[in-house]
Amino acid sequence: MKPSILKAVEITLAVAVAVMLCFLVVPWRQTPEMLTSTPPRPGVPVDVAKAQTPAPLAASETIVSLFTKVAATPAPSTPAPTPAPAPEAKKAQDATWLTLVGTATGSDGKPSFAFKDSRSGRIIRVVQGETVGGWSISDISDKQITLSNNGELYLVKTR
């Protein structure tokens, strides 16, 4: 191949790469047409007054909290209801059939936990300070979570 043709091809490819990089780096402005929930039909004008604005994005702290480990017991924004004191202290059973599979923090700041019941194959979701499907959280420590269900206490290892 002739050197002049080779040089022209190299320059053309370099310009194409530079243009593509500009498309990646330069932010796109959103026009009102982009904010509508349905794409506009060709030839039909878009009413900017009726265009829906997108839902506000979640704060980065909220997103990060979904993927970080929940500390011992975070201070809830509202005090959690205190359970009625039991007449006799029941000893918690070691729940080897329950496995902690995940944690998350809701938009209200309450941590929730997901447990896998190996006997039934179900996933049990429990939110701190609430009773969900008869399950509630009695205590949280670094190494275990104490769950309550139908008056019985169960210990689930977290590590």
H and E string: HHEEEEEEE
Shape: elongated
Per DSSP, the total helix count is 2
Unreliable segments of 5+ consecutive residues: none
Distance between the termini: 66 Å
Mean pLDDT over all positions? 76
* Order of strands across the main sheet: 1-7-6-5
The largest pleated sheet is described as:
4 strands, mixed
| Rg result | 28 Å
β-strand number: 7
Helix content range: 10-25%
**Beta-strand content:** 25-35%
- Total count of domains: 2
Class from secondary-structure proportions: alpha+beta
Oligomer: single chain
Name some characteristics of this structure.
three-stranded antiparallel β-sheet, four-stranded mixed β-sheet, single chain, alpha+beta
Précis, in short:
The protein has 159 residues and is α+β, with helices and mostly antiparallel strands. The chain is 19% helix and 25% strand. The longest helix is centred in the N-terminal third of the chain and has 23 residues, at 3-25.
Describe the structure.
The protein has 159 residues and is α+β, with helices and mostly antiparallel strands. The protein has 2 domains: 3-50, no CATH class; 60-157, no CATH class. Helices cover 19% and strands 25% of the residues. It has a 4-stranded mixed beta sheet, with no helix packed on it. It has a 3-stranded antiparallel beta sheet with strand order 2-3-4. A hairpin with a 5-residue loop joins β2 (98-105) and β3 (111-117). The protein is elongated and about 90 Å long. It starts with a helix and ends with a strand.
Topology:
Elements: H1 3-25, H2 60-67, E1 93-94, E2 98-105, E3 111-117, E4 123-127, E5 135-140, E6 144-149, E7 152-157
Parallel strand pairs: 1-7
Antiparallel strand pairs: 2-3, 3-4, 5-6, 6-7
